[in-house]
């Protein structure tokens, strides 16, 4: 015998009856209740008609509602005059409307779970859907099946929260409102460091230090406080990334490390770097290519399985969007997706981007709209020293746009802050 989906006719009719007799209930629930809350089509028609009348500022009672349903040609579908009258008289008072609504939401969630699982079951047998897309779709459906209701907050409540936060900031000298430090103190102070739900774009020309600087910055919280981080790389292999990281923290020339030309003191530093890195929560995803759906799925897994708090992506233009015919839109989708993922998963995303020869972001200007900060890694043209670079924060949602003098010690794959004599 086929089972019917979970429902509660009494709760649906009790809620509709309450709303008919007290239109204030519609005002309170119009942005929360939709057709999915009702299992029976007749009740869906009644609710939607009441909502339309409320928006049109029409009086709502048994007679006006019946007339409106008749004018829309929905009266028979809503149960006819007898059916509407029955709903109108089903409960003696509207006092318990919230109890009826809670019951409706409970069974609605159960319906959604069953329908979602059924679709996932069907898709799992479709061999034309690749596993990453299947997992992303399933994860999105499961996490998004329950509608969240956003409460309207009044200024008094918001200010109370803000005052508490300001007091904490005064007590901690602002540290409470800063995230994990990158190790570049001026950058941390300007951007408030790596905080949850933020997107930072670090851009540079090819082979100009953007990956080196970003890798050094996002692994600093791991080195200092064992913060779990992840690197999604579509350009460098996992081994190449680890080469750079070890060279950076050990102060050993990368070429010496790769050529096996280590001095006696190098062996000691290398051994120490390996020992410290062995158990650090640095997770590397080495992919030749990735689309935005796979990116979202991968980030969810990294957060769920490894509790990562910072995710670096190298680099934006190598990721595929859903509109391959328009590269501008495709990269814009990558940027927007990165920001959404940061907010959804409560993590910090560090997105690398390629600059062209003119020093502009290739193919897309939308990074500025999505990111919390945009940092360019460029050579200092006013200096004659080839190691002198600038870390230019050209867009900063939480502070000033500044230029930070840096020294690029390329052979050791690391940056240092540079003191400029005035």
Question: What is the element layout, followed by pairings?
Answer:
Layout: H1 9-21, H2 24-29, H3 41-55, H4 62-71, H5 80-88, H6 97-124, H7 131-144, H8 155-171, H9 185-191, E1 198-204, H10 210-225, E2 229-233, H11 238-250, H12 254-259, H13 264-278, E3 282-286, E4 290-291, H14 292-306, E5 310-314, E6 319-320, H15 327-345, E7 348-354, H16 367-370, E8 373-379, E9 388-396, E10 403-409, E11 414-417
Parallel strand pairs: 1-7, 1-8, 2-3, 2-5, 4-6, 5-7
Antiparallel strand pairs: 8-9, 9-10, 10-11
Structure, explained:
The protein is of the alpha/beta class and 422 residues long. 49% of the residues lie in helices and 14% in strands. It has 16 helices and 11 strands. The protein has helices spanning 9-21, 24-29, 41-55, 62-71, 80-88, 97-124, 131-144, 155-171, 185-191, 210-225, 238-250, 254-259, 264-278, 292-306, 327-345, 367-370; strands at residues 198-204, 229-233, 282-286, 290-291, 310-314, 319-320, 348-354, 373-379, 388-396, 403-409, 414-417. A 9-stranded mixed beta sheet has the order 3-2-5-7-1-8-9-10-11, sandwiched between helices. Helix 1 runs parallel beside helix 3, helix 1 crosses helix 6 (97-124) and helix 6 runs antiparallel to helix 7. The radius of gyration is 29 Å and the shape is elongated. The mean pLDDT is 87.
């Amino acid at each position: 015998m086929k089972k019917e989906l979970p429902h509660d006719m009494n709760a649906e009719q009790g809620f509709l009856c309450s709303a008919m007799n007290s239109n204030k209930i519609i005002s309170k629930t119009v942005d929360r209740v939709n057709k999915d809350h009702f299992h029976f089509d007749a009740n869906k028609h009644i609710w939607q008609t009441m909502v339309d009348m409320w928006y049109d500022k029409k009086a709502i009672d048994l007679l006006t509602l019946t007339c409106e349903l008749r004018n829309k040609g929905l009266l028979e579908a809503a149960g006819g005059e007898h059916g509407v009258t029955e709903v109108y008289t089903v409960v003696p008072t509207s006092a318990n409307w919230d109890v009826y609504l809670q019951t409706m939401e409970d069974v609605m969630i159960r319906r959604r779970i069953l329908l979602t699982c059924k679709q996932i079951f069907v898709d799992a047998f479709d061999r034309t859907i690749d596993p990453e897309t299947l997992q992303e779709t399933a994860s999105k459906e499961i996490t998004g099946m329950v509608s969240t209701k956003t409460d309207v907050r009044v200024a008094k409540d918001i200010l109370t929260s803000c005052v508490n936060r300001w007091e904490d900031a005064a007590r901690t000298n602002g540290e409470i409102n800063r995230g994990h430090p990158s190790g570049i103190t001026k950058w941390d102070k300007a951007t408030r460091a790596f905080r949850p739900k933020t997107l930072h774009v670090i851009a540079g020309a090819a082979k100009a230090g953007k990956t080196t600087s970003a890798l050094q910055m996002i692994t600093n919280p791991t080195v200092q406080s064992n913060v779990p981080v992840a690197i999604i790389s579509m350009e460098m292999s996992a081994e190449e990334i680890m080469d750079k990281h070890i060279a950076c923290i050990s102060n050993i020339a990368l070429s010496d490390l790769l050529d096996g030309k280590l001095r006696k003191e190098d062996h000691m530093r290398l051994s120490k770097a390996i020992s410290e890195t062995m158990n650090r929560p640095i997770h590397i995803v080495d992919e030749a290519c990735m689309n935005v759906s796979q990116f979202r799925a991968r980030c969810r897994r990294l957060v769920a399985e490894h509790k990562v708090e910072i995710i670096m992506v190298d680099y934006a233009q190598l990721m595929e969007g859903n509109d391959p015919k328009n590269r501008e839109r495709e990269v814009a989708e990558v940027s927007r997706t990165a920001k959404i993922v940061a907010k959804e998963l409560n993590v910090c995303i560090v997105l690398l981007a390629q600059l062209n020869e003119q020093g502009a972001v290739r193919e897309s200007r939308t990074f500025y709209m999505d990111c919390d900060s945009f940092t360019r890694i460029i050579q200092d043209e006013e200096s004659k020293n080839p190691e002198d670079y600038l870390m230019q924060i050209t867009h900063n949602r939480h502070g000033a746009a500044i230029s930070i003098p840096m020294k690029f010690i390329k052979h050791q794959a690391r940056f240092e802050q540079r003191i400029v004599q005035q």
